[in-house]
TrEMBL record:
The organism of origin for this protein: Saccharothrix mutabilis subsp. mutabilis
One Pfam family here: TP_methylase
Keyword S-adenosyl-L-methionine: yes
SUPFAM superfamilies: Tetrapyrrole methylase
InterPro entries: 4pyrrol_Mease, 4pyrrol_Methylase_sf, 4pyrrole_Mease_sub1, 4pyrrole_Mease_sub2, Cbl_synth_CobM/CibF, Siro_Cobalamin_biosynth, Uropor_MeTrfase_CS
Keyword hit for S-adenosyl-L-methionine: yes
UniProt similarity note: Belongs to the precorrin methyltransferase family.
Annotated region described as Disordered, given as residue ranges: 231-257, 293-345
Low complexity: bias regions: 300-313
Keywords: Cobalamin biosynthesis, Methyltransferase, S-adenosyl-L-methionine, Transferase
Associated pathway: Cofactor biosynthesis; adenosylcobalamin biosynthesis
Protein name per the record: Tetrapyrrole methylase domain-containing protein
Stored Gene3D superfamilies: Cobalt-precorrin-4 Transmethylase, Domain 1, Methyltransferase, Cobalt-precorrin-4 Transmethylase, Domain 2
Length: 345
């Protein structure tokens, strides 16, 4: 048996946007490596055990993180490394994964909700559309210098870059063919209480970023799919869908998912396996045991005391007819009379 390192996507920021599997891994972890600047603290406090070791990734070096992995391999610990959004996007996953494999650790990657998906959901827009843009291009901080080539495709762009480089981003997008009236969504700390979410255009993007004082890593969504759709005319009749039988279940959201998470947390915090439910004994077995006990000689089973209603009913016994065992005296048999028949002479 060896230690395990789980690379968990913590989601875009909100503590309740983590997956159930991710919450379970945090509840099981002996060590949690995370960065409070990019992962909400409530996400860790809600799911981690009170005795779990918390390591602030932003305050330690990569060599110290590798030392945690070595300790996990020697002591068979369960380690969780939290990533903002999804570990597969701009998280440096490959290098960490290879390091853990060299140390002989069991590894696992738990996907999460990306900031790109959360930003699209926040403005209620799909990022791909069959009639406008059928593809989505993701550009990280290091790919911001190639935006001109990406923009030439004329599709939707998701750019994660420093807000201080907005002027350079606008310049390359214009050179790539985007017009100044192209819609742009600016998202910073999306899904968090202090999120910044603004809808603007490429021509006004630089002024928008300065207005909101966004100089750190910010997400920019660019493309015609983000244009506001035309509102439905009030005179046009609206056809309402017929409610299905199973649709009523949506009226009362089920707490089953989170109750499962809390069960995992309590099990991990107690540091003991969950108690297994005792299987119910078959009724047939109970009946057979009772019959066998009655057939055994000398086995006396105490009858349960009847309730008041049952006892009262027991007093009124129905009349029964029993066969008498005393022989009754027989009456003397009457003498037989013989008929004399006259013979014809």
């Amino acid at each position: 048996m060896t230690g395990r390192v789980s690379f968990v996507g913590a989601g875009p920021g909100a503590a309740d946007l983590i997956t159930l599997r991710g919450a379970k891994r945090i509840a099981e972890a002996d060590v949690v490596i995370w960065a409070p600047s990019v992962v909400e603290a409530e996400c860790v406090r809600e799911h981690a055990r009170p005795d779990a070791e918390l390591v602030d990734f932003s305050r330690v070096s990569e060599a110290e993180v590798v030392d945690v992995y070595r300790r996990a391999s020697a002591a068979q610990l369960k380690v969780v490394r939290l990533h903002a959004g999804d570990p597969a996007l701009w998280g440096g996953l490959r290098e960490q994964h290879e390091t853990c494999q060299r140390l002989g650790l069991t590894t696992e990657v738990v996907p999460g909700v990306s900031a790109v998906s959360a930003a699209g959901a926040a403005v209620a827009r799909e990022l791909t559309s069959s009639d406008v843009a059928q593809s989505l291009v993701l550009a990280g901080p290091e790919g911001a210098e190639h935006l001109k080539d990406f923009a030439a495709h004329g599709t939707t762009l998701a750019i994660s870059a420093s807000g201080a480089r907005t002027a350079r981003i606008v310049e390359q997008l214009r050179e790539g063919g985007y017009a100044d009236d192209t819609p742009v969504v600016v998202a910073y700390k999306v899904s968090l209480p202090d999120e910044t979410l603004a809808q603007t255009t490429l021509g006004e993007l630089e002024a928008c970023v300065k207005e909101h004082k966004l100089y750190r890593t910010t997400l920019f969504l660019v493309g015609d799919v983000l244009k506001a759709s035309a509102r439905r005319s009030s005179d046009e009749p609206v056809r309402r869908s017929r409610a299905a039988k199973w649709g009523k279940r949506r009226e009362s959201p089920s707490a089953t998912a989170w109750s499962m998470v809390h069960d995992w947390q309590e099990t991990a915090r107690a540091n003991r396996p969950a108690a297994k439910a005792k299987p119910a004994e078959p009724v047939l077995a109970l009946v057979s045991e009772t019959v066998e006990a009655q057939e055994e000689p000398g086995a006396v089973e105490e009858a349960p005391k009847p309730k008041a209603a049952v006892a009262a009913a027991a007093k009124k016994k129905p009349a029964t007819v029993q066969a008498s065992t005393t022989p009754r005296p027989r009456k003397p048999a009457a003498p037989r009379t013989t008929k004399k028949t006259k013979r014809a002479n």
